Amino acid sequence: MNGFFEDYSAYIMCFLLLTVGLYGMLLKRNYVKKVIGMTIFQAAIILFFILTAYKEGGTVPVKDPTLPLDQADAYINPLPHALMLTAIVVGVATVGVALSLLIRVYGAYGSLDEDKIQQEASK
Amino acid sequence: MIGEHLPALPILLYLFLALLMPLAAKLGRGLPWAISWLGSLAVAALGAWGLWHTSTEGPIRYAMGSWAPPVGIELVADPLSCFFTFAIGAVSAFVLLHSRESVERDCGASNTMTYYASALLLLAGFSGIVGTGDLFNLYVFLEISALAGYAVLGCGSAKASLSSFRYLIIGTIGASFYLIGVGLLLAKTGSLNMADVTAILHLEGLSPATTLAVVFILVGLGIKMALMPLHYWLPDVYTNAPATSTALVAPLGTKVAAYALLRIGYEVLPYEALALDLRVFDVVLALGAVGIIWGSVMAIAQDNIKRMLAYSSVAQIGYIAVGFGLATPYGYIGAVLHVINHAVMKACLFLVTANLEHRGEGVSIKGLNASLRRKMPVTCACFAMAAISMIGLPPMAGFFSKWYLLLGSYEQGSWILVVVIVVSSLLNAVYFFRVLERLYLGKDEGEAEGASPSRLPTVMSFSTLVLALSLLALGFGNVFIVSKFISPMLPGF
Amino acid sequence: MTTDVVSQISTVPLLAILVSMTAIPAILLSSRKPNLRESWSFLAAGLKFALVLSLVPGALRGESVGITLLEIAPGISLRLVADPLGVLFALVASGLWIVTTAYALGYMRGHHEKKQTRFFASFALSLSATLGIAFSDNLITFLIFYELLTLATYPLVVHKESPEALRSGRMYLGYALTAGLLFLAAAVWVNVRVGDVSFAAGGFIPEGAFGEGELKLLFGLFMVGVGVKAGVMPLHSWLPAAMVAPTPVSSLLHAVAVVKSGAFGVLRVTGFVFGPEMMREHGLDVLLALFAGATILLASLIALRQDNLKKRLAYSTIGHLSYIVMGAALASPAALTGSLMHLSAHAVMKITLFFCAGAIIVHSHKTEISQLDGLGRRMPWTFGAFAIGALGLAGIPPVYGFLSKWWLSMGSLDSGYSLALGVFLVSGLLNAGYFFPIVIRGFFRPPAPDAHFPKGEASPWMVAPLCITATLAVVFGIFPDFPLPFFEIAKQVVESVMGELPQALNAKDIGLAP
Which of A86, A94, A118 is best to mutate for the B interface (most B CBs within 10 A)? Predict the structure, then answer.
């Protein structure tokens, strides 16, 4: 196990962040806090992808005249970055839809607290 | 010409039509409605054409933007995916055809344009999930369909918005889990193309990272398809959403996730390691079996028809999971066939509830009475046909998926499954005959003739009827479907 | 069926099934004109009977003709074949449909029943399903029509729509659907192990395809599947409950079509799926015979205690169905002959009795046996017909029931289970014990002082059919091949299944047939 935490410290932090987000989404009683949890959750995933792209000593994946192109190890992997651009867009859209739904919910129930709304709804 | 671009066409058509909606709404009030169902019909035609084409000349692989895979995104049209495209187009065409009045009533006349735009985006997402050959692209389409789905399901009452929000939270978790799994696979294999990943994984076998990836992907897709312990979002959403939206999402949404599970589980991930080391199939099988019984029992306990149907969906998804988990040719055939059959059955049943709501009848089972049969004979007949199919009586479609699943269970020597399938059919009979009894034999408490306020629009009865009749067609045509489209696509077991 | 019998292509079996199905839209459309509606029923019944009759010459030659419609599951076709056994059953069902239509007309109008259109439509559908069962060539086709029959008869059982009727309907569905599913489970199992589901005379399951215990389980699944409709105890309780249905339903469906489909299913499964040899070798015959024997005796004992006329008839039906099952179980040529003859004999006699019960109910509104004192003198035709039916069921010559019981008794001696002979004899006595008091009450007891019997007989629409069936019961008892060659067809079936004729017929023609 020696060295495990050192080697994977970034991943461990990332998964901690993931659990924080998941906790917020599942257990917070306030809907806006759930949405906040969701953004944390998504950020953690984005970080995770970026981490997989990282290489010790790699440089940005922009063509560098001093480095030959066939030396792939010298560049970090650009693909996860590109993917995460899409994922960020998806995340933003999700938050948008979530908030717009919440506006309707707030308009109808006058609250964003799960317990209060459930009381209201069961009346 | 078209053949070459076939894999991309359904997706692009839907996306393009969705963009067209604001303009269409300016030109005419009924235009968004007309365009969307005609568009779906066109997609169904494309799917049918693709079926014919790919089953004679082999699958079409399409590189998006001419970027060759594995770098670029690849779309694949093979008989199975074309068949699903056809099913998506056909089912949604009739649901959309049916939807005009309900949408105006439930979501407001001013919102029809946005509703149909969202619906088309939803369908674009579905056909993308079916057509893609790229793992990340699948995630994107999963989210497109999900986001559009939240909008479609959340319109109407505040209750609908609330349950749609809850669904959004759960759905995001599901999709994100899938994404984490994909990320792990990417880190391990360096590729996102399904065929490429398959080849690499077969060489390398399972490592701890890929094992983790399998778990994340399965849980993610399990949430999306509402597999038994991950199904809690489903009943609320289906019950509170406007009937049309439910009729659009319920038959197709969980099914495309199931399709993704079948594709990835059998074709991308290494089968032997999954079966022997992780025992994934056994786990899914067990969950499916429990889900069948649980869903059926819960359905019996409901008074709201929509909620009853939602729980029955949970049970029916259990069938698909069982077919997946059997991991035999018959199990696979049963699962795929049930995906189609159940899509049509559920669409038909939810359209029936939409008809009930339209006529101002409640959706409470206790409130049903025999006067309905006089007021809306076609609707009641459709309900009866779909119910008989759900129970699994021959020669309706539902019988045959059960038939293949039973064959698969015997092949595996799994007696418990035989018992589960038999018992669940009986439970189905209990909750459907409970409704049928009220519709056909209850006291006719309605007022005398002539007092009926508004007749059901012809398109509404028509589309419900078409779906009900296609259950018969699916039943009689099952051999054709199985031998022509499903059997050639069987993964090697 | 068997490969050695020439199977010609013929659409007649299909047409015979379709005739009554096509009558349904016509019946529904003419719902406001009762006379037109009933003439559709008559027309369909007549056509159907004619079509079935046209199959008789082929059946007498031991041929099977049929048609393959479409592949319904991989390797399994929806296939209809008229073999001798199927023709025999179809002949009984379609022939009695004509009579019952006439009777139903009188009954439904006399009783002012509601929803007669639904009644006649469901009735026609049930007949289609029954013929489908008769002409099914494989387990799946059989199952399809079997389930269709369940669905078609459900509206008939709940016809009154009273809470009691609904309860019975649920019970009926529960039993019948469970049975269908178990049958399905068995059929799929056979398909997986044997790779074939087509009936073949003498059985198609090869020795060794199933282990010893598995074979018993499979047989059990099949027997529960068909035994529910055949009312074998302990699966019988839906049948007395279903007596809430209108009497024409009870008479045709719960004495002829539905329950006989069950009995027919037993014959199909024992003779054409397992085969007599396999039954004997693995002790399946004893298993089935035990249940059948117990049912015969218990049902008769329970019938003795019923005061409701229709309930008594229902229990008697349960007992007599097990005669057929017993014949199939004993699986000797003579027993099978008896079994096949009882299929038609019981149909003719029991339908007479139900017709009588219905006539009594409609005309005098009496449902209990203890109320019938003296009614026979008012309704001599009805009670006379009842007496003939009762004599037949008790097995007294010259009524048809004597012949079938004679063959069954010979069969029980042949097969070496002489205990079965005792069962038949005791049951004959019990039959006499529960039927004759009704006749005696009717004719010889003075009417109760508070009994208000209406004058005269019931409507001729009802009396004529019951006289016809009673006459038939006697005619068949004397000439078992006239006007319909039941005995000859039965011989063909026995020869194809057992490979030999009953000893008695081999030794010398005993001269019952002209």
Answer: A94
Q: How far is CA C443 from the centre of its chain?
A: 30
pLDDT of residue B221: 92
Q: Amino acid identity of C455?
A: K
Closest CA to C473 of B370, C465, C422: C465
Whole-number Å distance between alpha carbons of B233 and B149: 13
Calculate the average pLDDT of chain B. Answer: 86
Residue B61 main-chain phi, psi, to 5 deg? -110, 135
Across chain A, mean pLDDT equals: 86
Reading across the β-sheet that carries C7-9, which strands appear in turn? C7-9, C64-73, C76-82
Task: Quickly count: other Cβ atoms within 10 Å of residue B408's Cβ.
Answer: 26
Contact C360, C308 (CB under 8 A): no
Q: Which residue has the higher pLDDT, B368 or B454?
A: B368
What's B475's DSSP letter?
Answer: H
The pLDDT value recorded for residue A87 is 92
Q: Which C residues, 330 through 389, put their C-beta within 8 Å of a C-beta on chain B?
A: none
In this complex, which chains have at least 3 CB pairs below 8 Å with chain C? B
Minimum distance, in Å, between the CA of residue B240 and any CA atom of chain C:
31
Give A-chain residues touching B168 at CB under 8 angstroms: 94, 97-98, 101
Q: What is the pLDDT of residues A76-112, one digit of tens each?
A: 888 888 889 999 999 999 999 999 999 988 988 888 8
> What residues in A contact B190, CB-CB < 8 Å?
77
Contacts of B414 (CB under 8 A, 6+ apart): B285, B326
Q: Does ipTM exceed 0.90?
A: yes
CATH topology of domain A4-122: Helix Hairpins (1.10.287)
pLDDT of residue C507: 47
Which token pair is C150? 């369940």
| Residue from B179, B197, B210, B230 whose CB has the most chain A CBs within 10 Å, to mutate | B179
CA distances from C104 to A47, B242, C24 (A): 80, 48, 16
- Which residues in chain C have Cβ-Cβ distances shorter than 8 Å to B483? 74
| Cα gap C387→C471, rounded to integer Å | 12
Count of CB pairs separated by less than 8 Å, B with C? 68
Q: For residue B172, is pLDDT > 90?
A: yes
pLDDT range class, residue B450, cuts 50, 70, 90: very low
Chain A adjacent subunits, 3+ CB pairs under 8 A: B
Tell me if C73 and B478 make a contact (CB, 8 A cut-off). yes
What's the average model confidence in pLDDT over B297-326? 90
CB B225 within 8 A of CB B254: yes
Residue C267 has pLDDT above 60, yes or no: yes
